[in-house]
Design a protein that fits this description.
Blueprint (H helix, E strand, L loop, with lengths): L4 E5 L11 H10 L3 E5 L8 E7 L7 H4 L2 E8 L7 E2 L2 H7 L4 E7 L10 E8 L6 H22 L14 E2 L19 H6 L7 E5 L2 E5 L10
Parallel strand pairs: 1-2, 1-3, 3-4, 5-8
Antiparallel strand pairs: 4-6, 6-7, 9-10
Length: 219
């Protein structure tokens, strides 16, 4: 494996990726790479490869020119499910797996050439934090695969029908009081108890619901 300078970029302040990126940085450094971890696009330094995870900033040429390779990590099987919040949208549709794609950024949203794609199965009982952990683990596995193959990379053009999902907002966590919990369990799986908890309206009031799994003690 060639030792190179890597940048890990995540500029969304409250992204869950910040929980996991320090561990990835340490792991890549253990493999001999020089690694920078950036929470602000303006602070990125020159390097060989930049990985962009959960970024809200449009990547312009002055940023892309800092690295020989720029890679966006997107949680779907592109060209399906371009856009934002796609893991939640797909789970709401009944998906039983998470896909992640590594691709080359272009001036069109999520439309660049693909380096790698892979998926992780879901059992159907995972809640938000568990889903996020699987997404992070799969994303990082593909990043390590990219670095193991570098510089012998063969990206391919996206083919097939595309779809686009809008950004999810806190209002998307609203439960329907006329539907059962079973019918809305996938929605409960995707809510964030702190940032956008499940809620419902009744008797002119708004009620908040927070969900967690029972912690079983094994004796």
């Amino acid at each position: 494996m060639k030792k190179i300078t890597v940048s890990l970029v995540c500029d969304i302040k409250d992204s869950f990726m910040h929980m996991y990126l320090p561990g990835l940085k340490k792991e890549l450094e253990g493999l001999g790479h020089t690694v920078g971890y950036y929470k602000n696009i303006a602070e990125i330094q020159k390097g060989d490869v930049a990985f962009f995870l959960a970024c809200s900033t449009i990547l312009k040429e002055n940023v892309l020119s800092l690295h020989g390779h720029n890679v966006v990590i997107h949680p779907s099987k592109l060209p399906e499910a371009r856009g934002s919040g796609v893991v939640s949208w797909k789970i709401l549709e009944g998906a039983d797996e998470i896909w992640v794609t590594l691709f080359r950024p272009t001036d069109k949203i999520d439309a660049g050439e693909i380096y790698y794609q892979d998926y992780a199965p879901l059992s159907g009982d995972e809640l938000c934090d568990e889903i996020r952990q699987k997404q992070a683990e799969l994303s990082f596995a593909l990043i390590k695969r990219f670095l193991a193959d570098y510089p012998n990379l063969k990206p391919v053009v996206q083919e097939g029908k595309s779809s686009f999902y809008p950004k999810r907002t806190p209002k998307d966590s609203e439960l329907d009081v006329n539907k059962s919990l079973k019918e809305q369990f996938n929605l409960l799986r995707t809510v964030d108890n702190e940032r956008y908890p499940a809620f419902f309206h009744m008797h002119g009031k708004k009620y908040i619901l927070k969900i967690s799994k029972e912690e079983r003690v094994h004796v």
